[in-house]
């Protein structure tokens, strides 16, 4: 808050020094800040008073027109109730969201309010006339709900709160009953539907058992599976034998006759002949015939096998014996010998028999190979027939199992629904209450509104707060230069001094002169302080012509220029004061003189400086009035006559002061400021805008003016609030007043400083 009353920050962003003891970092709050606050409030105390009075008046009107309102409350307890077995507990439909908030909205619903009104037997007109508001609130972190009714009649409020609580209990009971009845109805419908479906499923099972002889299905399936296994094994055996014989075929074609006979005549291993099949036939007898053992009937072709223990072994031995005998005879006889011929003949006969045996063995081999292929195909056909039979039996078995599962599933669903129906039917009568009225409402003994003392106190606080807020808000929005520190920091100018506020007499301008006031007063000392600042600033060594100007009109620049000239004259310097305001100059009125010829005559060349200079009656102080007001003052300032006049004034006087018009008002102010050797800038404390002052200073500098310093004029020390300023100037214990009437003083205050 203290930042609102301290001088604002400078353009560089820093805080202005000397803005109070609490302005800097690390400084605490002290009495200076309190004094600042006090003076800010006192300055606009009327605004605080207006807000205070208006707030109290509004509250009083409201209290007068407000009808007393009574508040009655009933309390509900939301609990879990008595424990009930889980299978018999009727579960309520749980609402989405927060449970407590949902119950609050239910109690405040129009349905329950209408039912409570009907319970009370009130008409809608009577009800709306008495009822003000209804609210339901949860007691902090508990399961208690408070039903609060504000009404114009305390008895009505208590009755309505109790009726609303009772209707809420009835509503919850109806909700549970409706839920139970709806559940019973739904479960009954489901039970009836499931019973019909179960009956139809059982009938389908009985019909299937009757049509398909279900008792023999499993036995047929086992038989089919057994035969399929045997046929599959037998077919595999036939296929293996055939593959062995086919594998021997390319080898036999390359072997000798004896090896072929040995191979084809070898009996097959017993492992290849399973399932009760007879052994293959054996070759026997002489070369003229074969003896084969084979089964009778159609299976004979399937059981025909390879030769066994062949006759060719004997022939082979006989051939070997004949060959040995022939060899022996040839050692003794020639080939023509009868014995040799006979052996040769026997040997040929044996070879013919062996060839017959070989051909028979080959034929038997191919017959055996064809027989195995026929047996393999026959086994596959029989296996396919039994496989179809097994698949049909399996299909019927699966269909029967599916029908049984459907019956079992429907039976379980029916039992579940029926049991749940019984549980709901039993739980309807034993469901415990989970909500009850903890405390019934009673008629209120006194109204809750209006609370007169409390309301008036709050209104007073609001009025004071609003007033103080407006005061400090306006203070914050005020961008004027109010404090001496702001001159240096805000404008970047040397500070020459402070001129305190004075109550000048607007009817007698001569009273504004420094020579006509008490020389011991603070006002006189303030002008002397400005004079000292000017003289000791080093400017007197090269500065003789000065311009006193300001940013806007009515900032006291004329009075400042006049009294600064008087103070310089009192110090012994010869001073010429020139009225440079060619639009509305009135400097001659302060001395009781006529305008006559003046500055404008010099500029247009109608008069010499010596002809227009007037004696003021104050030692060492002369005056050049404005003269006739010209139509083109801006052009006159640029004439060469001005330079001639300045040269004459420098030679004749120690100091020349121009009372110049405001910089922001006319253009010749900046022009004249650039032609003289120095400028003194005047600011009305607490009145002149900071931005306008900064812009005026910028304009002067851009024109080439040499701004020597700034004077803070019309500073009200009681308004400033800085105790060290008021204490310093309070040492003189003087506030300049004209000795006229109070009306005159008030008028002087209202018109402000001249210039």
Proportion of residues in β-strands = 5-15%
- Major β-sheet annotation: 8 strands, mixed
CATH architecture of one domain: 3-Layer(aba) Sandwich
Assigned CATH superfamily of one domain = P-loop containing nucleotide triphosphate hydrolases
Under CATH, the topology of one domain can be stated as Rossmann fold
Q: Please provide the count of β strands.
A: 12
Q: What's the mean pLDDT score? A: 75
Q: Provide the CATH top-level class of one domain.
A: Alpha Beta
Low-confidence stretches: 1-26, 267-309, 720-724, 727-752
Give the proportion of residues in helices. 40-55%
Categorize the overall geometry.
elongated
Ends: how far apart? 36 Å
| Helix count, DSSP H or I runs of 4 or more residues | 23
Short description:
It is built from 23 helices and 12 strands.
Q: Can you describe what's shown?
A:
With 755 residues, the protein is α/β, with parallel strands linked by helices. Among the domains are: 2-67 and 448-477, no CATH class; 238-397; 484-751, P-loop containing nucleotide triphosphate hydrolases (Rossmann fold, 3-Layer(aba) Sandwich). 54% of the residues lie in helices and 10% in strands. It has 23 helices and twelve strands. It has helices at residues 31-43, 45-65, 99-107, 110-120, 124-130, 154-212, 214-252, 257-265, 312-330, 338-427, 452-477, 484-491, 522-535, 557-570, 599-604, 609-612, 633-637, 640-652, 668-675, 690-702, 717-720, 723-730, 742-751, and strands spanning 70-78, 131-138, 144-151, 435-439, 495-500, 545-550, 575-579, 614-615, 621-624, 655-659, 678-684, 707-715. Helix 8 (257-265) crosses helix 10 (338-427). The longest helix has 90 residues, at 338-427. Mean pLDDT is 75; it is low at 1-26, 267-309, 720-724 and 727-752.
């Amino acid at each position: 808050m203290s930042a609102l009353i301290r001088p604002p920050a400078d353009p560089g962003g820093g805080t202005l020094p000397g803005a109070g003891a609490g302005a800097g970092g690390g400084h605490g709050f002290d009495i200076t800040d309190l004094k600042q606050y006090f003076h800010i409030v006192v300055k606009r105390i009327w605004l605080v008073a207006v807000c205070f009075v208006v707030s109290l008046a509004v509250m009083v009107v409201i209290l007068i027109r407000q009808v007393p309102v009574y508040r009655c409350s009933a309390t509900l307890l939301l609990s879990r109730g008595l424990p009930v077995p889980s299978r018999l507990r009727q579960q309520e439909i749980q609402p989405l969201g927060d449970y407590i908030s949902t119950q609050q909205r239910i109690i405040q619903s129009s349905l329950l309010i209408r039912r409570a009104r009907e319970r009370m037997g009130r008409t809608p007109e009577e009800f709306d006339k008495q009822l003000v508001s209804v609210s339901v609130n949860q007691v902090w972190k508990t399961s208690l709900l408070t039903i609060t009714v504000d009404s114009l009649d305390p008895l009505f409020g208590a009755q309505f709160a109790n009726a609303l609580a009772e209707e809420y209990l009835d509503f919850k009971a109806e909700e549970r009953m409706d839920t139970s009845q709806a559940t019973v109805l739904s479960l009954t419908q489901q039970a009836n539907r499931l019973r019909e479906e179960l009956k139809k499923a059982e009938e389908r099972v009985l019909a299937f058992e009757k049509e398909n002889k279900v008792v023999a299905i499993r036995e047929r399936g086992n038989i089919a599976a057994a035969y399929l296994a045997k046929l599959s094994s037998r077919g595999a055996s036939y296929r293996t034998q055939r593959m062995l014989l086919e594998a021997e075929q390319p080898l036999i074609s390359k072997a000798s006759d004896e090896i072929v006979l040995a191979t084809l005549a070898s009996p097959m291993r017993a492992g290849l002949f399973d399932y009760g099949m007879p052994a293959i036939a054996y070759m026997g007898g002489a070369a003229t015939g074969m003896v084969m053992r084979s089964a009778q009937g159609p299976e004979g072709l399937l059981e025909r096998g390879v030769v066994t223990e062949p006759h060719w072994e004997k022939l082979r031995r006989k051939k070997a014996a004949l060959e040995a005998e022939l060899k022996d005879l040839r050692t003794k006889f020639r080939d023509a010998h009868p014995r040799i011929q006979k052996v040769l003949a026997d040997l040929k006969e044996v070879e013919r028999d062996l060839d017959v045996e070989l051909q028979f063995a080959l034929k038997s081999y191919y017959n055996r190979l064809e027989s195995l292929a026929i047996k393999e195909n026959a086994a596959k056909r029989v296996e396919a027939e039994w496989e179809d039979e097994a698949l049909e039996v399996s299909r019927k078995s699966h269909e029967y199992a599916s029908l049984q599962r459907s019956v079992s599933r429907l039976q379980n669903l029916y039992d579940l629904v029926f049991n749940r129906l019984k549980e709901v039917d039993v739980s309807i009568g034993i469901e415990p209450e989970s909500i009850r009225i903890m405390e019934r409402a009673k008629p209120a003994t006194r109204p809750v509104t209006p609370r007169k003392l409390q309301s008036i106190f709050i209104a007073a606080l609001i009025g004071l707060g609003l007033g103080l807020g407006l005061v400090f808000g306006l203070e914050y929005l005020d961008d004027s230069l109010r404090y001496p520190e702001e001159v240096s920091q805000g404008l970047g100018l040397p500070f020459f001094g402070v001129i305190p506020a004075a109550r000048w007499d607007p009817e007698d301008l001569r009273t504004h002169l420094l020579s006509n006031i008490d020389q011991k007063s603070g006002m006189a000392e303030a002008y002397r302080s400005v004079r000292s600042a000017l003289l000791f600033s080093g400017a007197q060594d090269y500065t003789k012509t000065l311009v006193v100007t300001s940013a806007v009109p009515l900032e006291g620049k004329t009075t400042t220029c006049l009294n600064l000239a008087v103070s310089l004259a009192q110090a012994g310097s010869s001073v010429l004061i020139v009225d440079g305001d060619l639009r509305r100059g009135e400097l001659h009125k302060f001395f009781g003189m006529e305008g006559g010829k003046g500055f404008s005559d010099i500029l247009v060349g109608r008069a010499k400086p010596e002809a227009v200079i007037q004696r003021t009656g104050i030692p060492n102080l002369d005056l050049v009035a404005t003269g006739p007001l010209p139509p083109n003052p801006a052009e006159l300032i640029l004439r060469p006559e001005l330079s001639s006049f300045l040269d004459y004034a420098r030679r004749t006087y120690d100091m020349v002061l121009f009372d110049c018009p405001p910089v922001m008002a006319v253009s010749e102010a900046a022009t004249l400021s650039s032609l003289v050797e120095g400028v003194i800038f005047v600011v009305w404390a607490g009145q002149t805008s900071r931005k306008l002052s900064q812009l005026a200073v910028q304009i002067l500098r851009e024109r080439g003016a040499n701004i020597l310093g700034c004077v803070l004029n019309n500073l009200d020390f009681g308004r400033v609030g800085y105790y060290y300023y008021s204490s310093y100037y309070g040492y003189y214990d003087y506030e300049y007043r004209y000795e006229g009437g109070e009306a005159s003083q008030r008028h002087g205050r209202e018109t402000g400083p001249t210039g």
